């Protein structure tokens, strides 16, 4: 098949790499220097919908895989389908599960999907009352979320009611996230351990992928501000029993809910789940696309023809059980640029990639090729160093040995990816 992957991050590199390994011919837009090794890249940005549709039609691609959330929320999959292009990724209606936290929380409530108790607020007075109400539910804390897309920065996990009120005020009045914060969700903090569970769906069937644990804050031991994700481990720590509760209590009711609301959903349902110490899962949010950096370890372990499964999903007849999994554990350590996640420094030369071997794959995220051919940093998260090992400790050791060889001035790396015990 000829497959077009849209996006330019580590997730898209991992997807293109896996699809190319299954023998498909890859196009990417816009791609990145890592993707160039496995795909023909077209210099078209993810917001240029008309040009992307033209590329897909003109090159007669059999399938388009849309990587990032912003074009999905903006309706790119609808436009591709309207032009007769088979597309993996939900239309704008389904993508609201990620694009609006108000819509998604209300959807969870409508379909009795376990989630933290919440209130929606559009004014400071409403927010103050909501913080009051949620605080009264228990001492665990209050979380404030901007309604719209905010690149993983629109959520504040507050330590007390004062901080929660201030966070809501900054979003609603000071418009800290622009229109994305014109409405906020205020919800109870759930204490527990997080896990990402991604499922492929054609709107009817589910193919639940192995669970992944992400590490979201910039510093070790979950300190510092949240990032897009600093490292991942798969399979994750959850037991089979917890995994099957996530399927039956969260994913299946979601699919039933989508169908009940006549929303056709062909793409990834990525559940961000908080698991209480008792083992009870709560849905924090949905993303409407593959995770980044969750996709890197998933693709490192995946066997079988992903292209056939994604095409089946795009057609509404997804084969289930067609994928197999390497028994080894995969660890992905993100190498981030100086200044990330705030004022990112770019343009630093990257060295040391040559000689990193077969059990370690370096997925490019924020990289670019300078006119003289030198690879340089071009974004906050620069590389995703992904290693396989018989156990998590071996995978970690291999990933960090490769990370230590990589030269990038001011590089930021968490040292504790995969260090938490793999037991609940
Ligand atoms: N109710 C909650 N209880 C505890 N932590 C939460 C809660 N909601 C969000 N968080 C934390 O904030 C992070 C970001 O929230 P999330 O809803 O995933 O939004 P986004 O990914 O869009 O920023 C989560 O990964 C989790 O660590
Ligand atoms: Mg999230």
Report the top-level CATH class of the largest domain: Alpha Beta
Classified in CATH, the superfamily of the largest domain is ATP-grasp fold, B domain
Number of domains: 4
Helix fraction bin: 25-40%
Would you give the CATH topology of the largest domain? D-amino Acid Aminotransferase, Chain A, domain 1
Rounded mean pLDDT is 96
* DSSP summary: helix tally: 12
Strand order of the largest sheet: 3-2-1-4-5
Strand fraction band? Answer: 25-35%
End-to-end Cα distance, whole Å, is 41 Å
* pLDDT < 50 runs, ≥5 residues: none
> How much is the radius of gyration in Å?
21 Å
Q: Any guess at the CATH architecture of the largest domain?
A: 2-Layer Sandwich
What is the total tally of β strands? 26
Q: Overview of this structure, please?
A:
The structure is a single chain. The chain is an alpha+beta fold and 424 residues long. It has four domains: 92 residues, Rossmann fold, CATH 3.40.50.20; 72 residues, 2-Layer Sandwich (Dna Ligase, domain 1), CATH 3.30.1490.20; 132 residues, ATP-grasp fold, B domain (D-amino Acid Aminotransferase, Chain A, domain 1, 2-Layer Sandwich); 80 residues, Phosphoribosylglycinamide synthetase, C-terminal domain (Glycinamide Ribonucleotide Synthetase, Chain A, domain 4), CATH 3.90.600. It is globular. The protein starts with a strand and ends in a 16-residue tail after the last strand. It binds adenosine-5'-diphosphate and magnesium ion.
